[in-house]
Amino acid sequence: MCGDDPVAVERVASLVRDLGGVLAALGRLDRARQLEEIAGFATSLALSGTDPRSALPSLPA
Questions:
Q1: What is the spatial distance between Cα 45 and Cα 53, in angstroms, rounded to a whole number?
Q2: Which of 6, 24, 35, 47 fits a 20 to 30 Å CA distance from 13?
Q3: What is the C-alpha radius of gyration for the chain, rounded to an integer number of angstroms?
Q4: What is the pTM of this model?
Q5: 36: how many CB neighbours lie within 10 A of its CB?
Q6: Alpha carbon 22 to chain centroid distance?
């Protein structure tokens, strides 16, 4: 998720955690377009039957 308002970011982060999600805070709101584009790419891969992890490998933390 992306956001410029620290209070709003923390509220959304709390909701994500409460629902059992894993939070990925990626910075300020001006990065949201990049996040949306990669989400669309990963979704397209999955819908075509390709595992998105084949194009988006995980990296060590």
A1: 9
A2: 47
A3: 14
A4: 0.62
A5: 11
A6: 9
